[in-house]
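Summary for the funding panel

The consortium committed to producing paired sequence-structure records for every protein in the target list. Below we show the first two records in order, beginning with the earlier of the two.
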Amino acid sequence: MTEISGRDVPRQFFHADGNKEVVKEEELQSLKMSNRPKVFISRSDYPEAGIKLLRDRCEIEVYNSLEKDVPTNELLNKLVGKDALFITSKNKINKEVVEAAGDQLGAEFIDFDSLLQQSDFVIVTCPLTSETEGIFTAEKFSLMKRSAIFINSARGAIVDQESLVHALKNKIIAAAGLDVMTPEPLPKDHPLVSLDNCVLTPHIGSATLETRDEMCILTAKNILAALDGEKMPAEYIL
């Protein structure tokens, strides 16, 4: 197809068979928009640096409400027909959410134990509830790969800390990074403090403007790379 266009005239497309097709500029822009990947963004206060990357390439829909986080029932409706999801960890990505997204999102729900067995990095960002308290037990650590990295930026009580110490000392998992512990701060003589394969930060793991901007930009780049079928810049394979 050959295109002939001018700044203020409709664009003319000549097909291989010689037929001519005239498309008005507004129709062309509408066509371009309809072919852009659709991304749902679950909050309106994410750093603009990352959102701009998506806006330049995608058709984005931002949840804009007095409530910071999109309620689950609205999230289920917003997911339909979307190619990607930019979402805070406060929203629970469960089987219902994955099924609502459909095949277009390319997500698959698996059970907790299978997730632990398959993951190179286990990153805990869930809230502390009666369901999640102490959920990471000795049994759960034993399911993980010996090369697995365990990261907790949620709440210390989600982890059975003695079991974590045992897993690290005995190389059941490779290493841990903890921004939260029980108690906070840990006593200086706590076993976690002296372990070479455990990094501790005092519950301020990402609390700088620069880090928050970079987190948002990296998430946007991951989304764009996945939509293009390319390797994600933050995809880590052990």
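The next record, for a separate protein in the list, is shown here:
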Amino acid sequence: MLATSTFAVSRRPELDAAPGAGAGPGEFNFPNMMRGIMSHPFIQHMGAAARDYSANANPDNTTENNDEVNSFSPPADIFNTPRAYVLHIALPGVKREDVGVHWDPEHGTLSVSGVVHRPGDEAFLQTLHSSERRVGVFEKKIILPPRDLETQEQPREEIDSEGIAAKLDDGVLVIMVPKMEKEWTEIRKVDIL
């Protein structure tokens, strides 16, 4: 059997030249085409929006826990009720003693960190055939109050650090962060119920 291949040849020879080949008029020049596309206002606007989004998602402009292979940032839902922020952080399989919740009023940041272990002894863990769950060290930092999605402004609501409470319920860490107007706050460790 003969292997056959087909390819299209354009009727315009200038398009058949190798990318970047030739610099004469009417000849295709791939680098110049890409420079033209990347300098278009729409593309520049989209790039700026992507950079702003990642800066808001992570204000330090760094990826959390990139230094370890088994580290991750768990997913979180933030609810803005009239009296409190309610956070739901998915942590299936985590134990209460392996999680820490801390409020930093100076930076307006709630930090959740800890470790998720895979249950079983060493002999059992060696039989692992497929792994889809995230295990290992985790850290999640959430800025409160969150920015307004439409105006991107930071609200001026104060957080009642004494009233912060956390509860681990069926693999979801539920954190209640009450709002209040207060002239001073302090950093304190939050106990998990």
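Regarding this second record: The chain is about 15% helix and 25% strand. The mean pLDDT is 76.
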